[in-house]
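dumping the sequnces here before i forget
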Amino acid sequence: MSARELLPIAPAAEVGRHAVRLLRERRRDLILTVLFYALAAVAGLVAPRLLGVLIEKVRADSPTRTIDLLGLSIAGALLLQALLVRQAAVAAARLGEGLLAQVREEFVDRILDLPLSTVERAGSGDLLGRANRDVAAMSRAARRAVPSVLVAAVTIVLTFAGLLLLNPLLALPLLITLPLLIPITYWYLRRAPAGYLRENAAWAQVTDSLAETVEGARTVEALRLADRRRRRGDEDVAQAYAAERYTLWLRTIWFPSVDFGYMLPVVATTAFGGWAYLHGWATLGEVATAVLYVQLIIGPMDELLNWLDEVQISAASLARLLGVADVPSDREPTDAEPVDETLTVRDVRFAYAAGREVLHGIDLTIRPGERIAVVGPSGAGKSTLGRLLAGVNAPTSGSVSVGGVPLVGLPLDELRGRVALVTQEHHVFRGTLRDNLLLAREDASDDEVRGALRAVDADWVAALPAGVDTEVGPKGYELTAPQAQQLALARLVLADPHTLVLDEATSLIDPRAARHLERSLGAVISGRTVIAIAHRLYTAHDADRVAVVEDGRITELGSHRELIATSGAYAALWRSWHG
Amino acid sequence: MTMRTFPVADPGDPDIRSAGRYLTWLAVRSRRTILMGILWASVWMVAQALMPAAVGRAIDAIEARDEQGLLAWSGALLGIAVLIGFTGTMRHRNAVANFLDGAFRTIQLVTRHASRLGAALQRRIASGEVVGVGTSDVDAIGSTLDITARGCASIVTLAVVAVVLLNMSVPLGLLVLIGVPLLMGLVSLLLRPLHRRQNAYRDLQTGLADRAVDIASGLRVLRGIGGERTFGARYRRESQQLRVAGVRTARVESLLEAAQFLVPGFFVAFGSWLAARFALDGRLTVGQMVSFYGYAAFLTVPLSTLTEFADRVVRGLVAARRVTRVLALEPGVTDSAEPVAWPPPGDLVDRSSGLLVRPGVLLGIACEDPQDAPALADRLGRYEEADVLYADVPLADLALADVRTRILVGHHDAGLFAGPLRRELTPGDGGTGDLATAVEVACADDVIDALDQGLDTEIAARGREFSGGQVQRLRLVRLLLAEPQTLVLIEPTSAVDAHTEARIAARLAAHRRGSTTVVATTSPLVLDTMDEVAYVEDGKVMAVGSHRELLATEPRYAALVTRVDEDARDAQDAWGAQGDEGDEGEESA
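..and the predicted 3d for all of it:
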């Protein structure tokens, strides 16, 4: 269900340090938020206090003028409180939005810096989860949880201070709730975050399964999977139900306990206050004010406790967002300058995991401008070889170098200018078609963009409503897989590296169109070195040399004609292909 | 309270004539928890409303130095505190039960209906709309049922508070009872601009989240070709726009927040003053002054709950409308009312193209226009109404279930479902084929071997972790396991390498020899293994024969499948190959 966690997670200490740093960088907003809320809380304490005074004045049969003045003062205090709350809310929003923007921007910068090999290996599941779930969790935290917790804490502290100022004796009953609230909340918080995460995951599963059923509705009908899909849906519902039951159980224990815990001080203050009045230790007005104060504190206490689990969850999310930065770099850039564009592979061995070698000693020299086709059965190591040739992975032993410099020793920008890799994996980015092309070269002119599209036979662009400025992707014009692949190749034309590694880069395009495309593409990138990993034999036929890779070794190497003449595996395949 | 256990065996037969009827139908399903929820919530909210009264009486007792009264009223307060804690939990449990009943029942209904509709679903409605049911609509519907308890309790509580206040003092009571709703109404005028900004904010937020996901999922492409800086800058720009929009939204939100202090504040101040004047005259006690203060502050709770109630019902209706639209969809092809029994094996004929599929023959179809192949397959499998005969019986006269069991069309875009691979490879009726054999025929052993737990590995939705070629082979395994009488495949090997394609072609032909099999492809490796091949141009069968016959007799067929055409010469120039020109003659031969 959830993607494997392949990327690191930041340790708690680092998360703490980072949170402190983030807050420190927004010191001004932080101080303003706390200050305004504090002032608002103080203003809020004035009204009950004045009510107490009012009571005393009424009992003393004061003139109506005093009563009127007090009434006006109460109104003034409440108006002031409302104004301060408004200022505070704006300051809190500025703080929260700022925090959030920084967290998400840093996260995106971090993923853009991830080493190539990590991106290749980790796949997108874990990363997508972080970009989606964890950023959303942080958003709730920064916009709601952090300000709410701040406000609540400030209000509680000030109200308690208000009680102490009013009459220290009347502050005592408030404390009797702590032995109840603290342990039960501790108990709850130890279980709640895991419970709610499980609940969210279970609901996500419900949604995913429904999406699968809908998107695969045709397969469901063809293979008569309706019963299974229904069962699957029911299983997901059962999981979500179990998760809901668990958190409901937690709340069934916690809710009444804390509700009672909030109200206990009201009862205690009333009884104790009355007793204190009878003994002459407090005035009636003070008792009334104290009772109102402990009622006033219920809201903030509830806010504080309710947001605590959210804060815990968001700390976990922040750890995952920060963790991306902990991926060690896999490149050791040196200052060495390649002397030419010759690609040299020397006795290269490679294993993704120790003991599972996929390439067993590859030697190959590719001259500048040469076109090499790599063919061979699935799983023979062709794509791995392609990745090594593009500098995505470093060989386990041996070397892959350009002009005498190992590829992993070239800085990333430098490497990109020399070698580019296009695989059959294609991705259309949100934005216009032009946006999608310009990422390969920001300063490309209109003519260059059009030229690149022409080079990949993308005639369909002309038929689009807004041409290259048409919005593409899920919200705009949806490109077909072949069109997306053409787009990928057009980017390559714009990037114009010296060496191109094409791993099944035309596999999704209709076979005849693909050949035509490869030819027109060839016209544009003439003079470039091309390594084409292909399953269609005409690609091999059209190339300068063909390397047949079987079982992690190059078993045949030569021009199409030479290989046909040797009657090896390639020749056999060619003949069956040709009939 | 005993909560109904989910999933239920049968979610029932919903009333889908309108959104309101659907919601009512759901409410009737959970009538018990809805009634109990209203009951508990009413007790809970009234108890909260009575707190100020009890506090006021206690203060009066203190003032009268009535120790007995103080004890009694403190005891009453304690009782109310316990009551609030208990009833609050009970109303919450019932509200959750209501939410879950509405949400789960809707999910079950939609899942059942979607599975029943099959292919028609995708034609009739955008899949995003159905998926939206699973994400937001279910939530909205659940929330509507959830709030019935508190919503109705608010009305009860308002009535109780009105009686208490009017009993205490008619002018004060009227002031609060008329004034509070009035001011709340004024405040709600703020809601419209707020919602507008919130919606704008949410749109930007969704856009930005999509952008992040976009970057993460396209990262491998970016790493291959560059562009990180462009994307980093774009993200930063949009993120800052969102930040500014967030602060703008907060400016309106903060007004609302301030109003939440101001409205009760107005009554607290005005009321306290008026109450104090009345108390001076002896018309009110001091305790009543304190209770009045409490009531004024408390009244916003039932009133804002009522606003929320109205809001959620509106949202619930919108969501229910979408749900009923999905539930009202009908299958795409109508099943024959009086189906004819399945005839003994005969020819499958598509009259519009002139295609003839003879029983027990492996037939290759090479379509000049790639669009023709899926259209032809749809007709053969009766995914659309067409003039197709099986053993001289129109397909439309046969039971649809029989057609589905006997003629299996494997679509090239069919994905895999999440779950243990072994189960997900098995067709719905279990399939009669042998898994090991099917895996061998489809050359999928290496795909399975590479998985941690082989066939028992849990695979992700849509087979995301597999490459195109791997998914294609797994899909073929699934189709082979079904062992249908007639198997129709569309480009089953387009994404695998030539070595593997050759192996699959040979094994597939050997495996299906004697069983009717139609393969739409332009691969010469596959076509060569077929008993006969039909060449289709402009939706019509132009020639039929063996692959080799057609190669020799149909130049356009030869051009199509061997892909050697007139511009081969350009290619030589373009690729700058060293003197391959000589090959051309031997190729076209």
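The first strand of chain A starts at residue 343 and ends at 353.
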